[in-house]
Amino acid sequence: MSSKYKITHRTSYWYEANVSASYGRMRLLPRDLARQTCLESSISVDPSPGDHSQYLDLFGNRVDYVSIHDPHRTLSITAESIVEVQAAPPLPLAGNVSWESVRDGIGRIGGDEDVLAVQFSLDSPMVEASEAFEAYARPSFTAGRPVVEAVLDLSSRIHRDFEFSQSATSVDTPIEQVLEQRKGVCQDFAHVGIACLRSMGLPARYVSGYLETDPPPGGVRLVGADVSHAWLSAFVPGAGWIDVDPTNDQVPGHRHIVTAFGRDYTDVSPFSGVIYTRGRTSSLEVVVDVLGLE
Fold it and tell me: Which of 33, 150, 244, 262 could cross-link with 155 by S-S, CB 3.0 to 4.6 Å?
C-alpha cells in the first residue's frame, strides 16, 4: 500500500522597516527514503533571490540557500512537492533484543550505520541527558525488556502524561520546563522522548515532516495536521531506525512525510537565517496544506 500527497508550505514575513539584505537556509523539501519518494519539488521566493543554491547537509537533508540583496519589507517562500509514501512494514524481529544489549553495543558492532548512530546518543544543543529524564524513562525500561517494546511504551506514556497545548511553550522553551509542566507541542514531545532515550544510553534522533490533512473515512483527525509535525526515531542495531510519534501515540506510517532529521530541532529548522534592518519587529505566518492524491 502506498499514498501520494501534494504538499504546499507557505511562509510569509512582514518587517517593520526595509530589509537591506536577507540570507537564509531552508529545509522544506521531503527526503528520498526507503519508503518515501519525492516525485516533484520546487521552492519559489519573493522577492527573487540573487543567489539560490541547493545541497545536502551532514544528515542528508535537502537544504536550499538563498540570498536577497534588494530592499524589501516582505518575504514569501513557497515550497511545493509531490511525495509517494509506502506503508510501514511490521516492526522488526531484531527489536526483541533487550534495551541493555542495544545500550552496551552501540559503537562496538561496526558498520557505517552503527558508527553514525553514536552521535545521536550524545547531548545536542536542545537536548541533554539528565537524571530527571532517566527517572521518567525508567518505568518503560525494566530489566531485559525488548528495546522496541520499551520505546513504544515510553512514547505512549508521553502521550498520556503530557497535554498538547500550543500556548504552553515556544520554540526555545527548555525541555526541562516541558518535563516539569507536562505541556507542549509535538516538538517538545519529540525532545522529551529523545532526552529520555539518551539518558538511558540509547541513540535517538529528531524527525520533522508533515501529516496528511484529512483522515481516512471514519478516521479521527490527527493532532498536528496542517502544520509542520515532529516525532522521533530510536536506533536498533540490525533493524535500523524505528519511528514513534508520541503526540498521536502512533508508529508513523504512510500518513507521515519526512522532510529532515537530526540531533534535535536546531538541525532541521524549516527556515533559519540573518536579515539586515533597522526595524525591531516582524510578523510571521506559516500555512501548510497536505492534500492526498488518488
Answer: 244
Contact call for residues 275 and 18 (beta carbons, < 8 A): no
Query: Residue 175 phi/psi, 5° resolution?
Result: -70, -25
CA distance 281 to 98: 52
73 φ, ψ to 5°?
-110, -15
Tens of pLDDT, residue by residue over 39-94, are 999 999 999 999 999 999 999 999 999 999 999 999 999 999 999 999 887 877 66
| Cα separation, 248 vs 164, whole angstroms | 10
- Nine-digit cell string for 202: 540509547
Domain ranges of the chain: 2-86+269-293, 93-252
0.90 surpassed by pTM: yes
Crossing angle of helices 186-199 and 147-161, rounded to 10°:
140
CATH for the 93-252 domain, from 3.30.1490.190, 3.10.620.30, 3.30.420.10, 1.10.10.1760? 3.10.620.30
Distances in Å between the alpha carbon of 20 and those of 50, 70, 74, 153, 273?
Answer: 13, 6, 11, 51, 14
